[in-house]
Amino acid sequence: MTDRGLFEQLRNTSHLHGANAAFIEDLYETYLADPSRVDPEWRAYFHSLTQELGDGEDIPHSPIRARFEQHGRDNGGTPARASGAAQGGLSAEAAEKQAAVLRLINSYRFRGHQAADIDPLDLRPKPPVPDLDPAFHGLSPADLDQSFNTGSLFAPTQMPLREIIAQLEEVYCGPIGSEYMHITDTAQKRWIQERLEGTGCRPRLGAARKKEILERLTAAEGIEKYLHSKYVGQKRFSLEGGDALIPLLHDLIQGAGREGVKEMVLGMAHRGRLNVLINIMGKDPGDLFAEFEGHQPDGLQGSGDVKYHMGFSSDIQTPGGPMHVALAFNPSHLEIVNPVVEGSCRGRMRRRRDPQGKQVLPLLIHGDAAFAGQGVVMETFQLSQARGFYTGGTVHVVVNNQIGFTTSHPQDTRSSHYCTEVAKIVQAPIFHVNGDDPEAVAFTTALALDYRNTFRRDVVIDLICYRRHGHNEADEPAATQPMMYQKIRNQPPVRQRYAERLVQEGILGPREAEEMVAAYREALENREVVASNILTGVRNDYAANWARFVGAEWNEPVETAVDKERLRGLQGILDALPDGFELNPRVASIMESRRKMVAGALPLDWGFAETMAYATLLQDGYRVRLTGQDSGRGTFFHRHAVLHNARDGSNFVPLQDVTTEPQDFVVIDSLLSEEAVLGFEYGYATTEPDTLTIWEAQFGDFTNGAQVVIDQFIAAAEAKWGRLSGLTMFLPHGYEGQGPEHSSARLERYLQLCAEYNMQVCVPTTPAQFFHMLRRQMLRRYRKPLVVLTPKSLLRHKLSTSGLDDLTGGHFHNIIDEVDDLDPAACRRVVLCAGKVYYDLLEARRRESRNDVAIIRVEQLYPFPERALRILLAERYAAATEVVWCQEEPKNQGAWYSTNHHLYNCMGPDQRLRYAGRAAAASPAVGYPKRHHDQQRALVEDALA
């Protein structure tokens, strides 16, 4: 039958027109999900239109509706109507009622969560939701017993309105409030609807399963009460009020293991952390009690950290076999652990060759105020589906205490109704659940995990609960929240309520619940591990081996030179472009220059040296991961690790051809984030010791947006937690007159953080130095973070080049002595410097023919090479009476204040030290080019004087 003929048939049997667009749209959505659920004539009609308009799954509703209205107008231009029920169709009034029912169903899906019973304290009145009133849609009490088509509702095709509303109330207004209609993917929405509406949000739990939930609740309450009575007044950041988190985590681990997950990385702040360590991770209670008594944990060196920041790992038996669960170390900067966990998971996925995240699961536990308030949460969500940062979907659990850090009201902690609104930026479904209903929590947990495993996307469980004590156990929250804490004092604990429920159901005997409590306390008294399913002696073939790096010395010698023929062979690989691949003329010129460099016909530039460092490391069996906002090309157009076809825009990465595994070299142009991306790369580096993991700032100045990662993890993780990392940071630095935000990488901040050999800070001034430094970072039996102040203008400076022999011989020099042929005995002054200013000094001295001034470069500022510099100052240049430290940065910035004590240690008895550079300043650099050049000229003159 033709499309026109179908329409004529529909016009004679239906009274639907533009006013009933919602009915048509709902029928169309039902047709897309399951054609058999719509009447034959509608099925034929939608099929004919989708055939005419294209692929039905990709057609939005509006063209279908428009086509219906277009076909449904008669010659007079008015909506088509049939003559009445006598011809077999619905009356106009009945059609309106049917459309109203479908709108009501849609309203519950959109707004039912606002009327849901999700607050165990029932603190605040629910907002009015007029859309959920049948009268809002033109339905009256007389319609309640009338049967209507249920449309796309997962229910019988026809139901009385009363039963439709009852089902909708049960699903959308019970202890679970579901937000998912913001998702644009129809398949995801229909999947969620089926899981919610097809079950009534009621878990089918047997007696044994219910007892298991009670046991987990008993454990959650038991450890808190034990610590509260035994260590009175000590901070523990109790979980009480959010006890359901423990059965939730137990279910997640067991459910994930059943689906094949082999590793889970868990990130959480301090609230409830001790509870998780004891009842989920299987930490020995005796070890925790020793920490409460002030003892340092066995085997932990360094400064240590408070007990509720410490990490832990264990192996747990699941229905799918052993699962390794790691709780990440975390500072008090709450959400900053989020990207670190994601990076760690990405590294574990690489080791397991698991690109979809089927075997590795990130789990993040948030606080409500922090989830809404801290920007790193949004940045981490934006990583979730980005190339290079994908981890197969994260399960987020918000322990929603309905109160801020200390005593804040929700209206002071966010502008949104829910704390979870930020998750909608990636269209994550959000399930708000009443924390005092353990069975609803169990249902939500299974639903969230299944969604993640089905669609490989993030999902959020908003566990709405309360905090029985204050921010810490010495706090008195009733002073500022009297009404909330009056309710909390009268609120029976969830364990007690659930136990009473099981007794009423005949699942427990009258004394059985108290026997559980007594048994748990006795286990704690006996210092027994109380977590269930904990395994010992499990072999993990995918674990990273960090033991070989413990105790290594920073000055351990290593051979970084590479044979000339090897370099030429590698360049031959890098030159081989795919057939038909056409380079941009400027890039083609750079590639041609590199061919001449490896042949010895041109001096080596920075791009060539860096590329060769990566290529040789790949050939040596290491991997390279480089991320940053312009890392493929390089901010300053020097790297070109990713080539772009000028004909069709396709990409080619020559370094991926060096090995048989293309993913051995990964370069990613990251999103415009410093904090989350640097945190991710740090997490990756902590689990991948044999990968040169590099984060590159677009300009070094911008790292202050990631200062928390630097302070809390990169600089201090080894001292606090014993965590090693070989993360390398490229920070473009140099004063070229580009103003305050494009000059300084804030060298002084890194040097201030340097102590106990915690990291390395280098300022290489030649391509060869850069080459040897990168190779040294991997070839040494030494894994510490490496901070590199990389060049900008030096990338093309006529003096900042190297010869091929500098790569095929030599090594990284921590100190570079005078390069001109000067008589050391005739030198009365030695100028020390680091970085680009060296070339300004060198050119000025040559211009002035000053043969009495030697210039020495310090290429590694930490660990400071005192022995090498002492040999030069106190021995080689013993005749010099003046030592000058020259820097571009203002006096209160740069290396001067953090380094001058090293300089004094290296000087001879008759030598004095002087500073030459910019005066102290509030801003890193001036904003006017002329003023910049005047300052630069003055500091060079002062140094040479």
TrEMBL record:
GO BP, sorted A to Z: tricarboxylic acid cycle
Listed Gene3D superfamilies: 3.40.50.12470, 3.40.50.970, Multifunctional 2-oxoglutarate metabolism enzyme, C-terminal domain (3.40.50.11610), TPP helical domain (1.10.287.1150)
An example molecular function term from Gene Ontology annotations: oxoglutarate dehydrogenase (succinyl-transferring) activity
Record's keyword terms, sorted: Oxidoreductase, Thiamine pyrophosphate
EC number: 1.2.4.2
Positions of the Transketolase-like pyrimidine-binding domain: 604-797
SMART domains hit by this protein: Transket_pyr (SM00861)
Classification via Pfam families: 2-oxogl_dehyd_N, E1_dh, OxoGdeHyase_C, Transket_pyr
GO terms for cellular component: cytosol; oxoglutarate dehydrogenase complex
UniProt xrefs under InterPro entries: 2-oxogl_dehyd_N, 2oxoglutarate_DH_E1, DH_E1, KGD_C_sf, ODO-1/KGD_C, THDP-binding, Transketolase-like_Pyr-bd
Region annotated Disordered, chain positions: 69-89
Cofactor needs: thiamine diphosphate
CDD domains, per database record: TPP_E1_OGDC_like
SUPFAM superfamilies cross-referenced by the UniProt entry: Thiamin diphosphate-binding fold (THDP-binding) (SSF52518)
Amino-acid biosynthesis in keyword set: no
Top class in the EC scheme: oxidoreductase
PANTHER family, per the entry: 2-OXOADIPATE DEHYDROGENASE COMPLEX COMPONENT E1, 2-OXOGLUTARATE DEHYDROGENASE
UniProt similarity note: Belongs to the alpha-ketoglutarate dehydrogenase family.
Purpose: E1 component of the 2-oxoglutarate dehydrogenase (OGDH) complex which catalyzes the decarboxylation of 2-oxoglutarate, the first step in the conversion of 2-oxoglutarate to succinyl-CoA and CO(2).
Full protein name: 2-oxoglutarate dehydrogenase E1 component
